[in-house]
From TrEMBL:
Residues 38-65 form a coiled coil. The gene is pilO. The chain crosses the membrane at residues 12-28. It holds the Pfam family PilO. One of its GO terms (biological process) is type IV pilus assembly. Keywords: Coiled coil, Membrane, Transmembrane, Transmembrane helix. This is Type 4a pilus biogenesis protein PilO.
Amino acid sequence: MTNFIEEKKKLVILILVIMFLLIGLFYVNKVMPIKKEAAHARRDLETIEEDIDILETQMKTEDEEQADNDFQLERKMPTSRKLDDVLLSLKKIETDSSSQITTMSFIENSELLENELSLSDVENGTTNVTETTDVGNESQANIQNSLQQLKLITINLSVTSPSFGQFQQFLQGIEQMERITKVDNVTFTTNSNENNPKNQQISTNIQITTFYFDSSQ
């Protein structure tokens, strides 16, 4: 009887050992690979999320830069006439230089001829063509379309300045306007002051041109 019980115990222990070994083999061969794959997948997911965050940051930065570029371009070359902005700028220049704009007139030219003005000339503030390059049909079509959208406004000013230095300050103010503006012509007469020849009043006729893109076309 005692031997039978001992054999039973040994059999139970053997079965338990075998079950433990089977569980260990199952864990090593099945569970561990799954856990490794899960950990690897989790790392891949974290990497993807980091890449997405980086891309979103880059896209946000690019969008902000593009918006800033568009804003700056709009200030230099607006998409409408925006004459009020021009008048405000001229008023500030008038005040800063202690000058007086006595008369002002506007002439709007609806289109620019391609052989008279190119986009690069406008950006450089000059109408002198110094270089010609061959472009493809598509590029040329884009340039022609841009030129059709590009409009100019000619402004004729009669200005009186207390002195030549203040006249120069007025002229420099026009040249330094944020909106692209070029001085076309300047004619002036100096009214001498016999008592103080160094303090001569300057009467000036100034023709300037500013530009805008007609976004409605």
